[in-house]
Amino acid sequence: MRHDPATIVRFLVNGVVATAVHFSVLWLNLHVFGVPSFGLANLFAAVVGITTSFLGSRYFVFRAASAPMHHQAWKFGLLYGALALMHGAVLYAWSDRLGLDYRIGFVLATGIQVACSYFGNKRLVFKP
Predict the structure, then answer these.
(1) What separation in angstroms does the CA of 102 have from each of 45, 46, 70, 88, 116?
(2) Residues 6 or more apart from 97 whose CB is under 8 A from it?
(3) Nearest CA among 59, 54, 63 for reference residue 21
(4) Mean pLDDT per 10-residue interval, the chain, length 128 residues
(5) Which of the residues 2, 74, 78, 124 has an alpha carbon 20 to 30 A from that of 101?
(6) Angstrom distance (rounded) from CA 78 to CA 105
């Protein structure tokens, strides 16, 4: 499998934007809306981040807008649903159970997610 450097750069840019959206919504959930659980607040934030990531992946990263959106959205949703559950579980274990700083747990969970999402998107969701 060939990995085009321009695609990887676009993937990273899209990921930074989606992660910033995800973290911003997480922060709002915790500090403005008062959601009492880090894991639950993160789950809601992940949905917004995932939507941002899908649109960016379809139109910017993989430039696969000619394929039927519902097929891509279904596969993307399954992939990112699994990644969101993993992300939430890491944050739950890190912050709710161990009492550690949620920001560090977020970075840890996001690192795992990035490694899995590029290959899942390239091989499953937006493959030519």
Answers:
(1) 14, 14, 34, 11, 21
(2) none
(3) 54
(4) 83 94 96 94 91 94 91 92 90 94 91 87 88
(5) 78
(6) 23
